[in-house]
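Narrative summary of target 7.
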Amino acid sequence: METRSFKKGLPKLFMHLRSQPIEFVLFLCASFSVVILLLMLLFVVMEGSLAFTRLGTQLILGQMWKTNSDLYGGFPLIYGSLMVVSGALLISIPLGICTSIFIAEILPFQLRDPIKSVIELLASIPSVIYGFIGVTFLAPLIASIFGLQSGATAFTASLILAIMVLPTIVGVSGETISAVPIEYKEAALALGASKWQTIRNVILPLSKSGMLASVMLGFGRAIGETVAVLMVAGNVAMVPTPPWNYLAPVYPVTAVIAMQMGEAAVGSLEYSALFGLGLILFIITFAVNTIADVIVRRRPVGRSVQL
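Modeled conformation, tokenized:
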């Protein structure tokens, strides 16, 4: 029955799209985007299949990445990427959300747009400039503070990524907070709630879905960053000792791909292993975005509003 109804619904859909040319054009654009994504995924899977066939789980769980010795263990690289991104989000999430609350609810109206414009300008700075600032200023500063021989560490990369992610979190969270109906705020104030109580018990619960979306966008921005991380992370393919040591160098997946893809022979095991790492990165990003989408959809608006 479901198959028959689906087949009957298809002609009606196409008839409707033909009668509405603008909707038909938009449908083609959306379909084109989906097709491009699927083709990209298919290409990465095909190019990385050799590595998964020969190496198996070693590509994910292997502890050594040495191209000269044909050792392609991707665990230190994957761990380095997740370590740097986690550190960046731990810094940027509270800072970004507090900044968005301050701009949307506390800052005078005349100053909101100029301050937002200044923060958004951070997103327009090329990543190589961030990497250059990290190499010439931030890395030596961290080395002198913590007494390290080199300041190219996971902590340095996390700080750079946190600055790069900040405009995304501030922008999306700020728009979500501004979209809360003013009637809700006025009702809370009329019941005797203070400004902070209104923010905590009314605005934040209603904005949680948008804030989660901003964090996911920031995650995608951070985990896909290449040049800045390549310049300041240290590029050592080893899990830090101890594993939570942010003052040790790491070698994220994107940096490995950027450094070695140009020298890898097409069709070689190294070439395929790099594509395999890209596929793993794609799966991680897709899984995080899917979980966030499920959380957003299951959370009714206003569920946690309490005065």
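The first strand starts at residue 65 and ends at 66.
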